[in-house]
Amino acid sequence: MKLYYSHNSPFARIARMGVRESGLVSTVTELLAANRQPDNPVLQFSPVGRVPALVAGDLVITEARHVFDYLAEASGSAYMQFHDGNDWMAISQEGQILGFVDGIANWVRENRREPDKRSKFLIDVEIDRSGRCLSYLENEAASLRLPDFPAFRSLALAAGLGLMDFHRFFPDWRSEYQTLSTWFERQEGRASMKETAPA
Ligand SMILES: N[C@@H](CCC(=O)N[C@@H](CS)C(=O)NCC(=O)O)C(=O)O
């Protein structure tokens, strides 16, 4: 299998962590994409051209959630068999976490523009959104509702917090949201986190 990724995409990071957590490192070749470039190799397989994109024979799997599920099934490992089924609490939390990750990714995108082209309005929206999400997540952590790896939503949250940390968007978040920070520190110890850190 081939997995296309970019260094700083939190969604691609989820997939790369999924490769490691599922023990499929020797089966999956990771390749760099060239996001938004006309020569992006992902375009040979996927008209959408985004990462992550997993090429498995004739199949092209996109969307971090689907890539994770495919890897979990391909691994055949009981450790990876996390199906939320009709666990609506888990599904509800996953939605909030993916929205948080999306917000951080939007913020990063906006910051990549030249300073005079950045939208203060959009950045303020993301500052507010992530602040609200951090409070929600702190509460989830304090209520012991945040699972550890390898649940999909735990990988997603760790990737989002990792990107937020990398860009120092909320430099003091660890002291402000201490239970969430303790949860994150536990996940940070995983090899799958260390080997996929943003660069
Ligand atoms: N909902 C998608 C989001 C994927 C996504 O937004 N990928 C971004 C990088 S963070 C991308 O490839 N952007 C390049 C583009 O839009 O062409 C997922 O869960 O995988």
Would you mind describing this structure in some detail?
With 199 residues, the chain is of the alpha+beta class. It folds into 2 domains: 2-80, 3-Layer(aba) Sandwich (Glutaredoxin); 88-194, Glutathione S-transferase Yfyf (Class Pi), Chain A, domain 2, CATH 1.20.1050. The protein is built from 8 helices and 4 strands, in the order E-H-E-E-E-H-H-H-H-H-H-H. It has helices spanning 10-21, 64-75, 88-111, 120-142, 152-166, 173-176, 178-188, 191-194; strands at residues 2-5, 29-32, 53-56, 59-62. The chain has a 4-stranded mixed sheet, covered by helices on one side. Helix 1 links the parallel strand 1 (2-5) and strand 2 (29-32). Helix 1 runs parallel beside helix 2 (64-75) and helix 4 (120-142) crosses helix 7 (178-188). It is globular, with a radius of gyration of 17 Å. The mean pLDDT is 96. The chain binds glutathione. Glutathione (GSH) is lined by residues 9, 11, 35-36, 49-52, 63-64, 105. Glutathione binds next to loops.
Observed structural traits:
199 residues; 4 strands; Glutathione S-transferase Yfyf (Class Pi), Chain A, domain 2; single chain; binds glutathione; alpha+beta; 2 domains; four-stranded mixed β-sheet; Glutaredoxin; 8 helices
